[in-house]
């Protein structure tokens, strides 16, 4: 791998917003080498070859087995990156789950559902970031303006400010567990920003807006004004490219809210 490439790891990139983010970056510039984080390596391999066949592709892509809830998988992925590239430039923490549909009331389901959501959406982001920080610290992009980046794919629904504001469209009940997980993720993002800004890191929260993926019922969210998957990918890719650097340390996106 040529040292001139910017190495970007995107988690949960075999479909949805992660996939579209990868494709957008690779169509945009030859400078990106995307590591396509996928739970299943076989699906990752077929997704990577699907991306490679896209007309006009400029960048390069490698599938990487990565289940963000598995410490062994995180360790193997980290060792692969270290051995193959020696460093990492940009980490996009995109993998996420919504959890059970609302209405589940029995205590053990509530507990296991919330535990799984927190593990996937928050704890995995912490473990993965901590594991990969040494590789990000060796980023070739350490000199501004090309600093290493940590991007937490989050949501305005996790904003405490918005949730508490009676004038906000987010001032409504529902999806409490998912929203609490994104609130925690936002705090994690701010904590990393405070901790790492002195070391030349850029840390972002990025809200793709309401996007019609498998995450929520596609047809229902389309009726609520959801954008197409590629638009969600474009929004996250713009943060990767540095177009939203004015919003560093905040949850940037359509709504530009603070955590
Ligand atoms: P999708 O359900 O379409 O895709 C989710 C991706 O995450 C899949 O690739 C999935 O892999 C992966 N994933 C889930 N669990 C794990 C795991 N344990 N390890 C590795 N990968 C995992 O969702 P979206 O693309 O819509 O969402 C992506 C992110 O964007 C999420 O963090 C979500 O919270 C956020 N977001 C989405 C919005 C929307 O409207 N869609 C709005 C705001 C934020 P697999 O195929 O193996 O299941």
From TrEMBL:
Gene Ontology BP annotations? secondary metabolic process
Family the UniProt entry places it in = Belongs to the short-chain dehydrogenases/reductases (SDR) family.
Coiled-coil ranges (or none) = none
InterPro entries given in the database record: Fungal_SecMetab_SDRs (IPR051468), NAD(P)-bd_dom_sf (IPR036291), SDR_fam (IPR002347)
| Protein's recorded name | Putative carbonyl reductase
Q: Which species is the source of this protein?
A: Hyaloscypha hepaticicola
- Output the Gene Ontology terms for molecular function: oxidoreductase activity
Instruction: Tell me the first and last residues of the signal peptide.
Output: none
Quote a single Gene Ontology cellular component term: cytoplasm
